[in-house]
Amino acid sequence: MGLGYRIPCRRLGSLCIVYERVRSFSYDGKLYDEEGFTEDHISPDVPSKLLYYVAINHRAYLLPQYQKLKWRASTDDDLQRILPFLSPALREIDIDAQWEVSSSATSRLLRTLRAVLPHDIASLRFVPNGDMDDVSEEVMSNALDVRSSLQALRVPSCLVNASMLITNLRVLEAMFGEAWDSDPGAFFLHLSDKCPLIEDLRIIFLSDWMLTVESVRPLLRFSKLRSLDLESPGEVDLQDKDITRMGNAWRDLEAFHISSRRGYISKSTLPTGTPIASLVTFAQAFSPKLRKLAIHVNSSSVPPPPDPPVCLPNLEFFSVGTSQLDYSEAEKRRVIWFLGSVLPLRINYIYSDILSYDWSRGVFKPNGDGRRTTSAVWDTLSEMLYDYRKA
User: Fold this and answer.
1) Under 8 Å between Cβ of 224 and 252
2) E strands, the chain, where?
3) Which residues have CB under 8 Å from 300's CB, separation 6+?
4) Residue 294's beta-bridge partner residues?
């Protein structure tokens, strides 16, 4: 549906006959191409005319049948243009406010959503420009209080609170702050009691001392878990016994990430991270459903390839985050020899990060914002892995 031209008032009626058939709508305030940002593709007069149509038709909704709305705004005006497209028929809403969108515009929209969102909405994703302020978080909480049918909630800039813990929830993405006395273990235990159906969990920790291996243990109660993404700038090093316990509990897990992107790593201290040899334990303990793996590896001691051979058969994505690799060429060849035996042939690139902690970029969506932030050392290792397998 194109809205890049001015709409004559006489055509509104006929257009809205077509709009009644729409089931999904997507808008991007600033499309990005190789030459930079393009112009807005909704003309300035369009929203006012659409609102006028709604008003003269006894508050009829512009798109009365559609259920999915995706809106990406880059200015306050962009965000305001969403108003004619809101409807009680919506079941899935995805709003991304970027670049120049102000916190006041964000708060205003959240108040509108609180009034308009249907009680049986199933999915809500809301990403503001920067962290939410206290006012916006309060409005968000009030909007969620009566949405008992919500199954997916993605609010990565919002601190997790009790209003988000909806019994029917399958997907949760939020930040962890001090609302739970800075105890992730207590929060995860409460989460497992309140939301036993969780399948996809992404929690972003703001401090490097919060998350520990012990605090993760309540999550073992989530037998239906398919994706686990715990972003923490601190050191959460997994041992073989932890990996075995997790693999036995999460038989349907497809994506695993815990603290691969560390906030600060001092070269004067002993190497940290999950021992690279523990990739064998991952292969032995987890089901073949595992497709994505991101961990901070410690490659200071590299074993020879396992005998008999062990492999992560269906792995499609492997990231080492901000893991350090600062050894001789001989040591790098040992790493390649080991990884070449454990990783499947389809893995021909090892993802990494030089940005220590950037929550806006999910580890499983590298370069999703157009930035390339990989480590040159691991890029070199990827080339060596490719050459090793080619030979």
Assistant:
1) yes
2) 24-28, 32-33, 36-37, 68-73, 92-97, 123-127, 152-159, 171-176, 200-205, 227-231, 255-258, 274-275, 292-294, 297-298, 317-319
3) 271
4) 257, 319
Q: Are strands 292-294 and 317-319 parallel, antiparallel or unpaired?
A: parallel
The residues near 125 (Cβ < 8 Å, ≥ 6 apart) are 93, 94, 95, 96, 152, 153, 154, 155, 173
In 195-277, where do the E strands start and end?
200-205, 227-231, 255-258, 274-275
Per-residue pLDDT tens digits of the chain, which is 391 residues long: 444 444 444 455 555 555 566 667 676 765 444 444 444 455 555 555 555 555 455 556 667 777 899 999 988 988 888 887 887 788 999 999 887 888 888 888 888 888 878 888 999 999 888 767 777 788 888 878 767 899 999 998 888 888 889 999 999 999 987 767 678 999 999 999 999 999 999 999 887 778 999 999 999 999 999 999 999 888 899 999 999 999 999 999 999 999 998 876 555 466 689 999 999 999 999 999 999 999 999 988 899 999 888 999 999 999 999 898 866 788 889 999 999 999 999 998 999 988 655 566 788 987 655 455 678 889 999 999 998 888 7
User: Helix or strand or coil: residue 79?
Assistant: helix
241 contact partners, CB below 8 Å, separation of at least 6: none
- Which residues, including other chains, have CB under 8 Å from residue 333's CB and lie 6 or more apart? 384
